[in-house]
Specification:
By secondary structure, the chain is α+β, with helices and mostly antiparallel strands. Helix content is about 25%, strand content about 40%.
Amino acid sequence: MKLIPVSTENRSAYLNLLLLADESEEIINEYIHEGEMFAIEYENKIVGVALFTFPIELVVELKNIAIDPNYRGKGIGKLILSDACTIYQNRGYSKMIVGTANSSIENIAFYQKAGFRMSEIKKDFFKKYPKPIYENGIQALDMIMFEKKFR
């Protein structure tokens, strides 16, 4: 498994992968050119993407992580988070944050298993999306924020 940096001008080529984690192309276009993006290579094939932004000093935000459904459940996501935390900790960042919808039951469990703790709820965050999002029979309304401190 390897993280391959993606230049700003080539990021649109990964839109289909980004859409696996964020259903709104309009919203993705608001952040696609921010921060650092990495293609995720596994067994010599691009199987996912991760995009990190830097909202405030010493804080890195995992803005989007998506793994091709055929490669989920193999521990790739957990490895990516571990590698990314190491990279950004070594660069002097103090923590990583990530948000997911109240309806994303699998993601909520995933981030906690990866060592993240709930830190905040952004009420009505998903009301700004062009179309309502439903997962697990639940409407996505609120963003649950998680954080993992490096020190």
